[in-house]
Hexosyltransferase (Callosobruchus maculatus), 345 residues
Amino acid sequence: MHERRLWSNLGYAVVAFMTFALLWHLLSTPPVLSPLGDAFTVYTHNSTVFTYPFQLLDPSDYNRLIDISFNFTITNFVCNETSPLLLVLVHTAPTNFAKRRTIRETWGQEVEGVKIVFMVGSVNSPELQKTLEDENRKYGDFVQGSFLDTYRNITYKHVMALKYTIYHCPQAKYILKTDDDVFVNMPAMTNFLKFDLSPYGASRVLFCTPRRHANVLRSYRSKWRVSFQEYPNRTYPTYCPGWSLLYSPDVIFALYCEAQVSEYFWIDDIHITGTLTERINVKHTDIEFLVISFKNLRNIVDFDYNVTEPFLYGRSDLEERQIRGLWRYVTTHSVPKSVLKDLQY
Ligand SMILES: *[C@@H]1O[C@H](CO)[C@@H](O)[C@H](O)[C@H]1NC(C)=O
Ligand SMILES: *[C@@H]1O[C@H](CO)[C@@H](O)[C@H](O)[C@H]1NC(C)=O
Ligand SMILES: *[C@@H]1O[C@H](CO)[C@@H](O)[C@H](O)[C@H]1NC(C)=O
Ligand SMILES: *[C@@H]1O[C@H](CO)[C@@H](O)[C@H](O)[C@H]1NC(C)=O
Ligand SMILES: *[C@@H]1O[C@H](CO)[C@@H](O)[C@H](O)[C@H]1NC(C)=O
Ligand SMILES: *[C@@H]1O[C@H](CO)[C@@H](O)[C@H](O)[C@H]1NC(C)=O
């Protein structure tokens, strides 16, 4: 059932994309479109050149982040000389050294067509900042912003990730926003993008694992407690947990524009994939069925069994041992060319 919905959403995405490409061909000037329509993507004949409609942004936009002034304090231009199929933006806390190391040694290893950057905010300790700069000198994969890295500031981090994509990696065909305790099955992911979607990119894509009618937590004991002033409604709009957000560039741009003019709400995935996604009128496509099941996770990591179901993600909240076990598995087993065709209907 999920698969069927995915196929039909894929169909819409492809049709929307082709229609737009055709329209773009026919019209030499961009038509006046709805807010999302303005966030079009422009492909040349050879499908490599790609740009965002910067004219729609305020000239001071680069140094503003929602409601604060902003600078990148560390930037790496990982896309300058390449047009990656996939840009991966990993949220990480500054002190999560081991988690970043695990990712670099496993699924984050250099892969053709994939670029990975770690998103951090600023820190109060000069020693910690120096350590981060050393780490960045070694790996060249940090993006750091001038806001303080705290959990109430995570929405700044997410919007910084969108900003980085727009200004510094407009070439990326797809964008994955994830966290540092996740396993991404990179061989399967690149095949999924190339063969099940399209190597030229797509539009109106937000593939994730939607949560519907989630209650706003009001208990003082909850880390995620939200006051009535912050959010008056009893439930959140449909949103997706922030560890597996696969975006197409047009959705990134529309969300970024919306975020820059919207109020600040600190739970980033609810704000961006819930409230703002509803405002730009994009629908989530549920790919929960491409997240490994708990049973298969155990089968692979603890029992070294072979599993038949394909998966793109090895869940969130994983221990290092699990990430390494999954990595060992995907590097010693062949990956289907088409992830979807391999599913049993
Ligand atoms: C595509 O076009 C761009 C810009 O005109 C050019 O730099 C690039 O070399 C072209 N690529 C191919 C494969 O023709
Ligand atoms: C950004 O950088 C400029 C120039 O270095 C500086 O004047 C400004 O205070 C910085 N803003 C923030 C928010 O760090
Ligand atoms: C969020 O970042 C801003 C800008 O750096 C800072 O002034 C503020 O204290 C931070 N908020 C929290 C809750 O840490
Ligand atoms: C990469 O591109 C940016 C603009 O996005 C530019 O400012 C920077 O100098 C370039 N860096 C390199 C190493 O080419
Ligand atoms: C709260 O719910 C109302 C009615 O469904 C809706 O119009 C409004 O946008 C919601 N508020 C927020 C902050 O999401
Ligand atoms: C599991 O997969 C590996 C690699 O494809 C293969 O060599 C092995 O024979 C398989 N084991 C079983 C029990 O099917």
The mean pLDDT is 88. The CA atoms of residues 86 and 174 lie 5 Å apart. DSSP finds ten helices and ten strands in the chain.
